[in-house]
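Reminder: ligand-aware prediction takes two inputs, not one.
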Amino acid sequence: MSTGVENLAQLESRFFDEIQSVTSEDLLNRLKSQYLGKQGFISEILRNLGQMPPEERPKMGAGANLLKKKIEEECRTALEKIQNLKKEKKIREESVDTSLPGRGLAEGGLHPLTQTLQEVQKIFKEIGFSIFEGPEIETEYYNFEALNIAEDHPARDMQDTFYINVVAHRGHPESDTKQGRHSDLPLLRTHTSPVQAHVMKNHKPPIRMIAPGAVYRRDFDVSHTPMFHQVEGLVVDQDIQFSDLKGTLIYFLQSFFGENLKVRFRSSYFPFTEPSAEADIQCVICQGKGHKNDVPCRLCKTTGWLEVMGCGMVHPGVFEKAGYDSKKITGFAFGLGIERLTMLKRGIPDIRLFYQNDLRFLNPL
Ligand code: PHE
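Here is what comes back for the chain with phenylalanine:
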């Protein structure tokens, strides 16, 4: 009776057949448990040994154990092979094809607002202006009082202000003004004009400066964002006249927009200048005609003019607060919006576009 051992030989060749088609760890585990698992073929043979004739048991037992070892060994080899193939495949997939052409680096440009700012600074520097900066977090004193804007002055409503809430840890902040001291109530500056006061406090005339920077107002629509940029200008000396203001600003506007640009000054009101004016330029779309191809110009609302900045002769009250003698000293100041200048120069219809991170805004010109 050699059936038992023959069975082993059949089982072995069947296993070696089947393992040829195993291509994954899953299939391998399944095959392994079919042969070596608790319910597997080998276990079954060993379990049944007791029913065999005693003389055949040792041979059969030894044979079954030997086959078990062979199967284990073969499974280990197969596992290694499968894992190696997997690794090679991964390396092949992740490797770089060095023969492909490169993609090149995208070239960036300066944001249009930065370009305008740089251009404005260049123009004023060339005619002898220095550049100053002031804090964006100001006090009520510098933003309003030093500029002749009293606490109950209606001009404070013109610029809806972001106040910074300090009531919680300082008691009632307005008490400062009531006691006749400077109000140090903090706020986000609504214009760059407070830099005038800082500069005059720290410098004696003559002064010829511009002060660029961010300003904040509670506004949001096609022509207003809560944060925007201004450039302040201040010239202080003896005998500065309105004609100096006009000459300087016409020179600037023509340098920025074009040599033959028409400029006009319209009477206006600011508490910190007297007289005050608004500078208008001829409309960049209809060239001052109010109509283009018989269509009413929407940009200038057919007036032919566009308002570009506020300006005026420094108010004597502002000089007095700075400690200057307003009988000996005169000067002019102006404030312009960087976003507005950029929109007019480049035909950008909505101020919010500047802040939407559209990468086309950074294309080099
Ligand atoms: N600060 C004014 C504004 O923001 C502009 C201005 C500056 C007007 C200087 C006159 C003189 O509207």
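The chain has 13 helices and eleven strands. Residues 243 and 249 are 10 Å apart (CA to CA). We will return to this case in the review session.
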